[in-house]
Design goal:
Anti_sigma_zinc_sf; transmembrane; transcription; 10 strands; Phosphorylase Kinase, domain 1; two-stranded parallel ribbon; extended
Length: 331
């Protein structure tokens, strides 16, 4: 166990490989730690899904249909790109091959095609199961403490004491031109460039900013920049938006409808709310009036987390190919 959580013990506990004394300690910790309990349940769910996965069998007529495709290929005669060159009058001719030799060669080719089809279809099922397991995202538990929220709000904008790396200067160089096309009124070119970068990096970007709020910092927090922090400040107050790939932990806060969507409210003085948007948990701390907060929430898309098999396989493919949100930034 590390840093008060199961850490590397989690996988061994899910597989039943811990010694009895360590397993008892781990289960005692799970009983009082919601984060580890949720991660353990997710690990067990992935193992149950893999155990239930069955071999994918090809349709009985698949091989025959693949072999029949050769009959639809036009002949090479008259095709200058595929026709074999004719030997010249002084060229040595190839040795004579009997009909039996050709029959044996064709039969061998057909057997190789059948084997390749069988191996390919069988491997498809294994690959899908592996991507399903990899596509499980971590459970995100926002810090509900008032101290955490007040610290975030006190460090909005450029602040050397704030966690993470502020990339706003590299994303929007001083004097750089940007086009605010498609964004709401009050969103200037600098804000437009910052929000455009957020969307291009795969994070959740608001469609517009409420009047009286501007982007004052854009930070990547964590060793791999796995948490995005977007600071908004102005006459309306201060707002800190934090995003992280994962699933919002069940039972977080109290459910309330704000800005046209269901959000988990962790506190209202100051505001601290969180919700799920696709595969990203959006966590907002705000010292603004409720109507301004609702304008901020409305500007974000509101698609929930899809726990289906195909979306989970797609998330696994994103992880394998390195296209998942949370990697190092690209200019």
């Amino acid at each position: 166990m590390t840093a008060g959580h199961l850490g590397s013990w989690l996988s061994a506990l899910a597989d039943g490989q811990l010694p009895p004394d360590q397993a008892e300690r781990a289960l005692s910790h799970v009983a009082v730690c919601g984060l580890c309990a949720a991660e353990l349940e997710a690990a067990r769910e992935a193992r149950r899904a893999l155990a239930a996965a069955q071999e994918v069998h090809a349709a009985p007529d698949l091989t025959a249909r693949l072999l029949a495709l050769s009959a639809t290929v036009p002949p090479t005669q008259g095709d200058p790109l595929r026709e074999r060159p004719q030997p010249g009058p002084w060229s040595a001719r190839a040795p004579w091959e009997g009909t039996l030799t050709g029959d044996l060669a064709a039969s061998a080719r057909r057997r190789r095609v059948r084997r390749a089809v069988g191996v390919g279809v069988g491997g498809l099922g294994a690959a899908a199961a592996a991507l399903f397991a990899v596509g499980n995202v971590p459970v995100v538990v926002p810090d509900p403490s008032p101290q955490h929220v007040l610290t975030l709000l006190a460090r909005t904008g450029p602040d050397a004491a704030a966690a993470g790396q502020d990339v706003l200067g590299s994303v929007v160089p001083p004097g750089a031109a940007a086009v605010a096309a498609g964004l709401g009124p009050g969103t200037d070119a600098r804000d437009a460039a910052a929000l455009d970068w957020v969307g291009r990096q795969g994070w959740v970007s608001p469609d517009a900013l409420p009047a009286g709020l501007d982007v004052t910092a854009l930070r990547l927090v964590g060793a791999r920049g796995e948490i995005l922090e977007l600071d908004l400040s102005g006459e309306a107050g201060h707002v800190v938006v934090r995003e992280q790939v994962g699933r919002l932990a069940p039972g977080t806060g109290t459910t309330q409808r704000l800005g046209g969507r269901e959000v988990a409210v962790l506190s209202s003085e100051p505001w601290h709310v969180a919700w799920q948007c696709d595969d990203v948990v959006v966590d907002v701390a705000a010292d603004v009036p409720q109507e301004v907060l609702e304008q901020v929430l409305t500007a974000f898309p509101g698609d929930g987390y899809d726990a289906g098999v195909l979306p989970r396989i797609a998330r696994g493919w994103s992880v394998v190919t390195g296209t998942a949100t949370g990697a190092q930034p690209q200019p």
